Amino acid sequence: MSVTPSAISHQIKGLEGFLGIELFRRTKRKVILTEAGESYLKPIKSIFEQLESATSELKSQQKSGSLRLAVAPAFLTRWLMPRMESFQESYPDIEIEISSSTGLVDFAANDIDMAVYFGSGEWEGIEAHYLRPSRLAPVCNPRLIKPDRPINKPDDMRFYPLLHVTKRKDEWNDWLKQHDLDPNQFRRGLMFSSGSLTAGAAAQGLGISLSDPELVMPEIVDGTLRVLFDQHLITDKAFYLVYEKRRSVTPAMLAFKEWIIEKMVVDDEG
Questions:
Q1: What's residue 244's pLDDT?
Q2: pLDDT band per the 50, 70, 90 thresholds, residue 63
Q3: Out of 34, 72, 178, 230, which residue is the most buried by the measure of CB atoms under 10 Å away?
Q4: How many CA atoms lie within 13 A of 47 on its CB side?
C-alpha cells in the first residue's frame, strides 16, 4: 500500500479518537485487538473483502475482453506482428483477432473494432489517433544493379523498373519531382496491391520500390535489400489507429490504443 507503519499508527489513533473507543492494546512486543476491536472487525471485514473483490474485478476487466483488428498488410507483417508478444504478455486475457486490410473498413457492416489506416488522418465518422509518419525511400536488391549501370545518384535509377502500389501511383512521381527529376524519363515496373508486395518484389530483384526502411529492416540486415538514398518522400500521409466515433471504447480497445502509442514513442526514441 506504500504506507509507513507510522502513518498507519496515526490513522488508527484518528479512528479511535473519532469512535471514542480503544480498538488496540499496545504492549512492548505487539499490538492486539481489544474486545471492542474484535467486535468491530467482524462486520467491517466482509466490507473490506467486498471492496478488494470489486477492485480486482474492475482491474481484471481492464485486462480482458476481445478485440478485432484490421491492419494494412505492410504494417501488420512488418511492424505489428514482431511486437505482439509484448502486448500478449501485458494483457494475456485479451483475445485478439487480426485481419489484413488494404482499404477502408466498413465498420457498420462487420464486427471490426479498430483498424490501422494509412492516409491523411481525416475520414468521416472516424476517430483517428496518429501513430507514425510515412518514411519512404528507394530500396532494391543489390543483385539488380548491373556493373555497367551503377546507381550513384537518383537519376541513375532511370535504367531500372520502378515498382508501384496500385492505389498510390503518384508516390514515385512525387519522390522524383522532389529531386527535380522528370518521371517520364523513368521506367514503370510492375504494380502491386500493397507496399508489402512491392517490397517483396524488390527483394526478388524485380525492380526498385519505395519502402519504409524500418518496415523492411530484416531484408536490409540480411542484405536482400539496400537503401539506395536515405532521402524520404515528403508526404502528409501517416499510419493511424482508427475506430468509429459513435461507438463506445471497450477496455480492450483502450488497452491496445495505449499500448501501441507507447510502443511508437519507444521506437522513435530508440
A1: 92
A2: very low
A3: 72
A4: 5
Query: Residues 158-163: what's their mean pLDDT?
Result: 97
Q: What is the pLDDT of residues 213-266, one digit of tens each?
A: 988 999 999 999 999 998 999 788 889 999 999 888 999 999 999 999 999 887
Are 255 and 263 within 8 A, CB to CB? no
pLDDT value, residue 269? 61
> Between 268 and 137, where is the model more confident?
137
185, 156 contact by CB (below 8 A): no
Tell me the β-bridge partners of 33. Answer: 24
What phi and psi values does residue 261 have, to the nearest 5 degrees? -65, -40
Q: What is the pLDDT of residues 28-48, one digit of tens each?
A: 778 888 888 788 888 888 887
Domains 5-61 and 67-269 are alike in CATH topology: no
- Burial class from Cβ neighbours inside 10 Å (0-12, 13-18, 19+) for residue 69 reads buried
CA distance between the termini of the chain: 34
Statement: 5-61 belongs to CATH 1.10.940.10: no
Per domain, the residue ranges of the chain are 5-61, 67-269
- The hierarchical CATH code for the domain 67-269 is 3.40.190.290
C-alpha span between 84 and 75 (Å, rounded): 12
Q: How many CB atoms lie under 10 A from the CB of residue 223?
A: 10
Cβ contact 231:247 at 8 Å: no
